[in-house]
Amino acid sequence: xxxxxxxxxxxxxxxxxxxxxxxxxxxxxxxxxxxxxxxxxxxxxxxxxxxxxxxxxxxxxxxxxxxxxxxxxxxxxxxxxxxxxxxxxxxxxxxxxxxxxxxxxxxxxxxxxxxxxxxxxxxxxxxxxxxxxxxxxxxxxxxxxxxxxxxxxxxxxxxxxxxxxxxxxxxxxxxxxxxxxxxxxxxxxxxxxxxxxxxxxxxxxxxxxxxxxxxxxxxxxxxxxxxxxxxxxxxxxxxxxxxxxxxxxxxxxxxxxxxxxxxxxxxxxxxxxxxxxxxxxxxxxxxxxxxxxxxxxxxxxxxxxxxxxxxxxxxxxxxxxxxxxxxxxxxxxxxxxxxxxxxxxxxxxxxxxxxxxxxxxxxxxxxxxxxxxxxxxxxxxxxxxxxxxxxxxxxxxxxxxxxxxxxxxxxxxxxxxxxxxxxxxxxxxxxxxxxxxxxxxxxxxxxxxxxxxxxxxxxxxxxxxxxxxxxxxxxxxxxxx
Length: 481
Fold this sequence. Notes:
Blueprint (H helix, E strand, L loop, with lengths): L13 E5 L5 E2 L5 H6 L2 H8 L2 E5 L9 H11 L4 H11 L2 H4 L5 H29 L4 H18 L11 H18 L13 E3 L3 E3 L1 H25 L11 H24 L3 E7 L5 E3 L6 E2 L4 E6 L8 H12 L3 H25 L1 H6 L4 H6 L9 E5 L8 H16 L3 E5 L3 H9 L17 H26 L3 H11 L3
Parallel strand pairs: 9-10, 10-11
Antiparallel strand pairs: 1-2, 1-3, 4-5, 6-7, 6-8, 6-9
Helix pairs in contact: 6-7, 6-8, 8-9
């Protein structure tokens, strides 16, 4: 048996052997193997004849063959039209066979039960998509009618779902913001939009227009992908890949949030000239700082993860570390007392007069600070946890030891309730010191309090004289003698 065909260029033919009985085997390449076989088998092998096998040549594109095949498949007759119509609308095939007596009651009961659930569900889906609630009812009703006529399975359920509505809602909200509408459905129109130059479109009209346009474009993209046979792209989006990608995306988003809240921007604020506005004095021009008052802003919430950064940033920006200042003052006071005691023992007359030796004043380190009030701007803080509240209370006590008061400004109601419940008012006589509603109010309170203290100190100095402190020191040091 042999095969004959035209030889294709560039391809070597394959040689096979054919036995007289019709069995085919490959030709032996080694003649020694034939001689080693028995005589009966060697006679059969010697009767093989080589046969050449060649591949078919690929036929080119032929319009005539294409038209012939199209005529065979596109035979338009009554039966083909009915078949196409039944495939497009399967309801025409199964509805005539529907058993009303056995199936109608069960279908009515199940339809009522599904409707009780689907009506509030469709309303909630419309709200998720930033649409008026009535559009959710329309979507649920017409989807059921269309699927009733064109359904191919009784187990499928069509309609909206939560993830799709959220994605549509994000796009609609973005377009509403760009058009000048308020995102709240209960508010009035913020900007006028016109359709065709005559009809005014309110928020609901503009929102449904955006959603309809988005739905049309998505369907158009799917048709284009189907025409160009690009469905193979979905093969690479396997279920494990989607789960892994979603997990990576969620973890990356959480890490970004944690890192941004751990080391946020911290700065000092200054006052805009002739106004009640306070902004970053390192960014804007014509910002003046307030004498002896520091305003510190922390651009995120205060919680356990960033409490250390809050503390270090505050010390760095203000240039005052209350623990270090208190330690230096204690050392200076101890050294001054030691020097004064030595002077008293050496000269009792100088001690009774209360004179200070020049050496003691010269050796004492300078620990005075140019700040009497620290104002913390809490406008960017959404919440403060228990660790952050403990840090604020601790820092208030530390600053109080060195003569600096700590005030809070721009606190939201939740933070104010937390401060009140957490004991921020402990030791305060005035409840208004809880927090101030604005930075300017806190600045005015601090300036007024500083003026009152200066007036009281001047009055005390006028009554007792400037040497009151030296006399009291001398009397206190005279008793051990």
